[in-house]
Amino acid sequence: MLARSILYRRWGRRFAAALSPLLLAACQSQPATEARPAMWLVEDADTHIYMLGTMHALPAGTDWRGGKVAAAIDAADELMLELSPRELAAAGAVFQELAPRSAPLAMSARLPGKALAGYRAIEGDADLGGDELDDWAVLVMMGQRVAQQVELSPADGVEAGLTAAFRKAGKPIGGLESARTQLMLFETLDPATQRALLVRAAENSASAERDVLSMTDAWSRGDANALARVVNEDVDEVPAARKAIITDRNRRWSDWVKARLDKPGTVLMAVGAGHLVGQDSLPAMLAAEGYKVTRVQ
Known about the structure:
alpha/beta, 50% helix
């Protein structure tokens, strides 16, 4: 089942690990660490929406529930994730439907020398089936292999923990997108953009572990500026991907927040940390429109 594969690369392994719960990999564990991720609050007179930046896969035992997060969990009437539990469960089947190419194409025909060598290094003694897959799906398979080395676990990710907590409390859990909508963001990237991402991923594969750990560390410290630098360092060189996967989604989600503010209550909105940092972040968009947005952790 490929529903939880991290799309890693010098660009994507940082970027998508912070953004998409579809793109995770089931791996082993690392020693427990304490994390205090950044969180914002947007509110009006009778509505409070906490916006928590998540990592969808983490070292086993990571303690991210302390500080203000625990209070937000207790206060919230509902949880809003990128994908509801039902949609996340459906993601594997959607991936298997969308990922195959219409006709096989050898990786040696897609990648120049350095990139091909990098791909083979990641592949190792496993057969990733790249010849049969679209370029974006090859990135997912590469991500699985890299994630095995950095030992991240989706079972220890923020979404998994929040889902368990809200289910135990009998509180509703919703989703901003469907599994198909989320994967179609990658499927519908133009071929040149997909190929550029794949080539860059393979060419820079040697630094994969270091980069994803740097992203996890910045998230753990709640260092929004450092996290923004990590996420933006390479994605700015792929404007079509940034627009589709970050900016446009943030606009849609800001519309959801504005509509939800018309209804009283308290919501915990937990989305990939990359959506909450940078100039086109969700908090920045809302603040620019005059909404009261406060960083609370």
